[in-house]
Every structure is written in structure tokens, then in C-alpha cells.
Fold this protein.
Amino acid sequence: MTTESLSTSATRSAAEATPKARSAFRFNGGSLTLGLYLFFLVLPIYWLVVMSLKTNAEINSGMTLWPREITFDNYRTIFTDPSWYSGYINSLTYVVMNTVISITLALPAAYAFSRYRFLGDKHLFFWLLSNRMAPPAIFALPFFNLYSAIGLFDTPLAVALAHCLFNVPLAVWILEGFMSGVPREIDETAYLDGYSFPRFFVRIFTPIIANGIGVTAFFCFMFSWVELLLARTLTTVNAKPIAATMTRTVSAAGMDWGLLAAAGVLTLIPGALVIWFVRNYIAKGFALGRV
Amino acid sequence: MGLVLDRVRRDVGALTHIHETTLRLPPGTMTVLLGATLAGKTSLMRLMAGLDRPTSGRILVEENGRERDVTGLPVRERSVAMVYQQFINYPNLSVFENIASPLRVKGLPKAEIDGKVRAMARLMQLESFLDRMPLNLSGGQQQRTAMARALIKGADLVLLDEPLANLDYKLREELREELPRIVRMSNATVVYATTEPQEALLLGSHTATLWQGRVTQYGPSAEVYRRPQDLITARIFSDPPLNLLPVTKTGAEILLPDGSKAPATGALTGLADGDYQLGFRAHQLGLRAPAGTSLHFDGKVVVSEIAGSESFVHVECSGGRWVALASGVYRLEPGTPIAVHIEPTTVFVFDSAGKLAHAPAFLSAA
């Protein structure tokens, strides 16, 4: 009796709700909160983009919501002046190098942690992550000294290797999560089928965890891309990253706001692009592959 | 190819997963490993496959009367195939590629692979799914894919680890019927693990019963069923569970648990005085009094389960809690008084150490 009346009322309310929800967008507490949140989230990005399209004179003259006259001079400067665009090239070079190195090293390591039990494996695994927690500033000085001594200083490789410090552990953790989601029996079936380990790893295992590799690559890319301290400390001229270039734009004429904003916009783009590619798997990545 | 386990033992840490076991599986036979979960069926299979290494003992392969030690030989150098209880396929490969995988590794020519895969797919009724990805198939189709892959390489030893356990009833029946036929065609030595005594009787030419990491008995299935060497084997090989009645024999009488006495007839006549356990399967416990002498107990119905045209009646009486198989539909309310009868000629008798002291001469199959 009770269940019956409950179910009928549920059906009725569902029948009522459907046309209303379809009819129009209604303002309520939820959408207002969400709207405000999105507004504050987008505001700085909007401001940055608008600023990059203004002249310095307009930026300094007061607040305008929309540029009085749109100028692309700032972008033109960046794409034509080698001291600017080489910053992007340098940054991309070491970021890609770092991503490749991190994944290449982390794949076998993660496989070992995922599949084998060995002395101290759990401690070692946790210790890896604790590396991720140490502030990079601690390592800036030893890296600076070491790289100067062996002639790596001011090369993209120097930064790429330095970033491995936190990206390799992270990659191992994420990949281990994804790998542990693949039943061990798959490995055994492959061996029973006659696969050798390298062949199995390349032909069977890697494609299965392709999503995981994509997400890991994204995280390595992002963390290396946004890291400033080590990148700036370990480079001077030849491998100077874009973030460092941006912090050195104070000239005799004062701050070049418009140019800086344009550089900022361009710095956002690679990250946004990469996020687009892994958008479906990113939550799993944040959970270190353990969802 | 025959398989010989020679005093094989496997320890993991401080635990012994498989106690010292010696087994000789003749070439081309099908052996059912029967035992409850955690009895060591999978552990034993992994040793046979070479996925795990025995702590001690040797694993030998018998070919043309000659034995070859394969202990420690990597799996991929052995002629072994295995199907797991979980449906294990390569999720990134199509059904066709999954089945073809062992042949591709062998480096067979394309046309030959194509022909073999299609023939195997026909046998497994997978023809219309060859282009699909395994995860888009039903459980039964996935498991058939896994079996096809295991059988296609023509391995000498095929290990099936509860392959039907995760399938629904209908499919299980179907595959169970097909399996012996497929196995006979493959000419391989097959080992099949299951928890169900029924399957052992239906499938296996031989049965090995497992209990806590030990093989308690190995032999032709019907013989293990009819003459279990000990109480443990009898219990493993009984579904519903074996009914037990502890008795003490003194002279021509037996003392029952409720303190009453009965004449020692049937199976008990020739035995020495002492404590015994009478074991009888559900079909050996009757609801109607048999023609000859019988032990009868008054009790109460605990529950009655109707299985089609038969009923399993669970009875609580002075002898213990028993299950009786009755042909016909019995709708009995819990608590109903009921009398059950045991024919002393048809029971197993186990001595105080659990060894078989007497088996009934003839048993109709369950």
C-alpha cells in the first residue's frame, strides 16, 4: 500500500518536473552560486586577454572593460622578437624532453611496483611520492652547482632532468594505479600465448594503459610547464624559459603591461590544449589512477 | 603429453599453499580438480602451468614414454594454455585478434591463421563476433573467446580454472555439454578445476579431490565418488553436504548420539568395536521406511527446498542436522514433525581417524 502510493507520487512528480525543466532556464540559488563562481573564475582570464589587446597607454589610463581600439602589436612583438619567442621554444623543448624522460623511466618502474613484491617496495614507493612534497627550492642550489660543474648549465636538458625530480615519482604513482587496474592474468595469458616480456609490454600492455600514459604525460607536461624556480635558476641566456623572460620585462620605460599580458595568454594555450585531449581521464589522473 | 607432479610443494611466506603432492596425469585424459574455494585448486594449476615455481619437488612432462623435467622452465617455452575464472582477454584487441594471438606469436602465415581462427570461432559459435571488442560481449561470449584462444594453439596441457563459474546457468549447461567434445578433439591433457561435485561427475574421466592444499584422492571420477578413501574426500564429493551420524559399536549393538541403542546390522556387522561415523548422501536418507531393516529418527523440518520434481528436506533430529532427497514435491512447513530412515546397508562407515571402514557394495548414481 505504502510502496504503491509512494511510487505513484514519484511518477507524478517526475511527470510534472520534466516539462518544466525543459521549458526554460530558471534562476535559483544553485545556478546563482554557479554563475558567481564561473564569473570569478573567468574574470582574471578575461582581464588578461583584454589587457593583451590594449595599448599600454590605455592600460595605464584607467579601467576599461573592452579595449577602445584593439591592437595585436603585443602579439606581433612576441612572434617577431627572438628574445620572446625563443622563450617559448626553450620552455617547450625542456617540457617535452622532461615528459618523454619521465614516462620512459616511470613505465618500467611502475610495472615493477605494480606486479612484483620485493624488499622494501612499499617504503620505496612512498618515498618516491615524498620527493614530490619537497619544495623545489631545496634542490635549486645543488642542481646549480652540479650542472655548472659538468657543463649542463643553461641547457634545456638541465631543466628537463631537474624536473624529473618531481615528475618521475608522480608518473610512477599515476602509472602504477593504471597498471594495477589491469589484471595480472592478462600478463600471464600473454606469456602462455608465447609472448616475450618486451613484446608483451609493447604490443599488449602499453595499448591497454594508453589512457593512463596520456594522463601521466599531461601531468608531467603541466608541472614542468608551470615550474619557474628551477627553470630560472638553471638557465641564463640560451635556455631561458618563457616564464623567466616574463619576469624580466621591466625596462627603462617602465613595465610593458600589454606585452606581458599577451605572453601570459600564449602561456595558457599549451596547457589548455593538453587538457582538452585528456579531459575524459583527468579525474582518474588526479586520483593517481586509482578510481 | 602426460604431466607428472613429483613431490611438489609450494610455500608462500610461512604458509604452505600446496602440501607435498604427487600426481600422475596420463596423456589425453581429463582430470577434474574438485575442492572448495581456497582448497588450493588455483595454486596447483599455477604450478602445473609453470606460472609459479614449486618450493620443492619436480614437474615432469611425459612424452612417448620419456619423462622430461620442466620445473622452472618459463611458461612461454612450455606447451600450456590456461583459462581463468575471470574472463581474461586482451581488451585492446578484437575477438579475432584475441584468438589469433598465440598463432601470431608463433609467426604462422596469414592465410593459415585466418583459416584456423575461423574454424575455432565456428566451433565456439563466435563467428558473428569476430570484429567486436571483447568487452562489448556478454560474459559467455568473452569466456568462449578465452577458451578459443587457449585451445587454438593446440597446447599439450590445457588448464581450465573454474571457467564456467561466472556464467549464468543456461550458458554453463551449454558449455559443459560442449566441453568434453571440444577437449576430445584437441587431444590434450586437460585439467579442470571446479567446486561442484556435479561437474566432476559429468565431465571428468578422473577426479582429484583437494582439501587445504592436499590431494586427498585421485582416480576415476565414479570410483572416487563411490569409494571415497576418507571422510574428507566424501564430504568434498557430496552436494548437498554429506550427512553424518556418530555411533559407538559394542558387540552386536551400536550406541546412537541420543543414548538409545540399535542392532549393528548392514555395513556395521563385520567391524571391530569402537567409534565410527556413518556417512550418507542426501539420496541415502529416506522419508519413507524402506522394506528391510532401517534406522529411523524422528525430527523436525528445518526447511524444504524444491528443486523441480525433487525436494531437499533439511531435518533436525537427535542424530544431527541432515538433508534428505525426496522425489516429488514436498511442501513442508518448518517445524513439521518428520521421520527419516537410513538403510544400514547403504551407508559409508568411517573410523575414528576418518578412514573409510566400509563402503556400500552398490550405489545408484545421485
Summary: The mean pLDDT of chain B is 88. Residues 89 and 146 of chain B are 6 Å apart (CA to CA).
